[in-house]
Amino acid sequence: MADVALPSGGAVRRSLLAGNALPLVIFIAFALLPLIAAFKAEAYVLSLVTRVMIFAIAALSLDLLIGYGALISFGHAAFIGLGAYAVGILGAHGVHDALISLPVALAVSALFAWTTGIVCLRTKGVYFIMITLAFGQMVFFIGTSLAPYGGDDGLTIRMRSTLAGLPIFASDRALYYVCLACLLGAYLLCRALIASRFGRVYRGARENALRMGTIGFEVYRFQLVMYVIAGMLAGLAGFLLGNATDFVSPAYMAWQRSGDLLIMVILGGIGTLNGAIIGAAAFLLTEEWLSGLTEHWKVIFGPLLVLVAVFARGGLIGVAARLQGMLRG
Amino acid sequence: MSLTLFIVQTLNGLQLGVLLFLIAAGLTLVFGVMDFINLAHGVQYMLGAYLAVMFYGLTGNFLFALILALGAALAFGLILEFAVFRHLYDRDHLDQVIATFGIILFLNQGVKLLWGASPLSLPMPEIFSGSVVLMPGILYPVWRLVIIGSGLAVALILYLLVGHTRVGMLVRAGATNAPMVSALGVNIRRLFMIVFGFGTMLAGFAGIMIAPILSVEPGMGDTILILAFVVIVIGGIGSIRGAFLAALIIGLVDTLGRSFAVDILRLFMAPSPARTVGPAIASMLIYLLMAVVLYLRPAGLFPAKGRA
Predict the structure, then answer these.
(1) What are the sequence ranges of the domains in chain A?
(2) Rounded to the nearest 5°, which phi and psi values hold at B238?
(3) Predicted ipTM?
(4) Domain A29-292 CATH class label
(5) Between residues 122 and 181 of chain A, which touch chain B (CB distance below 8 Å)?
């Protein structure tokens, strides 16, 4: 959280730059990548990195819950599925415009987050993990039973969304920049939320919910609002994913996908926001790289995760911070 | 829905229930006593099945295969405990999740490398391979009855071990308050190792017993792991009694739900939507049950720790 709290004193300018250097580098890299990719295997690179950015949005939203609220959700992939199914089902009925499908995706995610949040937030710790898993599984099974929309096999999205009739998602490069804009927006929103008074109360509840209650905050309501916001952001990721893959299936909401999201956030370093983006990139790119090397890439990837868990406290961000500390002496 | 079908499905539900109990018992103890989330518990179950297939191939005798596979599963579990888990007991739950998830990936792929991706099968012992007439008109496979019987026997042994021995007393004390037990001079690391080894062996045993009627394949532990977590959460973490009861409930609800959901829905729905919605509702039933139980009792049916 060090990068979020604003420093005071004479070094404000320098520290501000230091705290923002990493996200600046990340976003500039994302913005310039298509220019470099234009020379080599453009379609492949664009679709891979678009995927990375979409999952980064979902990971960011999960980090809001895990890193800042100690609310470990094991059913976060459900929101991605809801967002993607909103695009798919509306598309199947001939509604392709993002002005309709995006609000619907967000509204469905928000409604699901709100109704399940009321139940989930009654529990704590491991029980919270399991009850979010339960709701995630319920959505998964609803997806498999949607026979008119493909059931188990999923649903092909024939046409990407348009915006007020304009085909802004039509080319891969346009979709790439739309995803980048969404990621940037989500990132800035998360930072603003965390730094706001609302965010401070929410973070306070992570440290000591009882004390926050005693000084007059009903933490449950703060957590519920954050749960809804995180759900909507993941729903946005689902909306983009549906457009990027032209396909949606219940597999998007399987518990393994929720596990993947958790791994991304932990791998990057929880409670840092930057870590969520880096974790999503590290996870998906390593997966892509190893699966190109050998069919049995999981034999390598599994032990890598174990090594990260045992040796890399605080994820990749934590390791980087310690290396930096060592270099400074 | 005929009575015959109902009886057979109830027995199938019981069989799933005891199987879940075998897996959940170890999971709930490891979780309750060591506060350790072991996602890799499901692959121990898978490993038990694979080891049994391998040793059966070597010895050609089910009993030898059972004993050797149990020993190997125990040894493997202890190696994992020594090499990886031991370093994670004091750590955040999230670190444990990521490490054990890594082990799942590794082992699922590892068995694919060693034994191939196609499902294997384990022949059941000759004497138990037939069916038995339970009632006029109801034939039931003997092996499923053997599974139910051995599961109940393990439950009884566990009850005696945990309820009436010194080690069991320490385990119960550990589930309630591990630091206090340690402060009283008990070697908590050794207790952890015993609990862990025992849990591993039970999961392996479940895998071996189910191998003759299920196909042995990579990833077979993943689904059952989630079910086992549902069981221990409903039962209350750290409670063997809770795990037993919850396992039987889940086994019965899931099996009966899957067989009769469509029939029940047809009582008040048109047949065609009932056929689409039925299976989905049946699959959701246990998760609905878990949500309801946790809503009413946020720490499960029999919370081991004093706090509610």
Answers:
(1) 29-292
(2) 95, -5
(3) 0.81
(4) mainly alpha
(5) 122-124, 126-127, 130-131, 133-135, 137-138, 141-142, 144-145, 147
